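Collaborator request, handled under Task 6.
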Amino acid sequence: MDPGRPIPSLPFVSGIPADEYLHVRLTASGAWHEVDSEGRVVMSTGGQQWTFAAPALAIVEHLTGGKTASIGKLAVVSSLAVGQVATLVSELVTADVAAVSRRR
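Structure tokens returned to the collaborator:
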């Protein structure tokens, strides 16, 4: 139930842009996920829980597995648009359980 370490995702203070080159990772430990009886993806980390549509499973698997991945890669593996992935990531960043950065 670690609440996570707030890590600023500057300069993205008003949401994560649809930029396929931004990288995301979870900052809270103990992340897990499952698929409920209706096929939705339930993810828990940092003492919080989210329910996503089935296409988000590949994204959640990457993140809960402790991997850092680009928004572009997550879009490809999930077959979602980069903008949709950025919206999902924005929710996690706003909740202080994920951070984004540019790889150097």
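The cover message to the collaborator said: "The helical segments are 57-64, 71-78, 82-94. The mean pLDDT is 88. Please let us know whether this matches your experimental observations."
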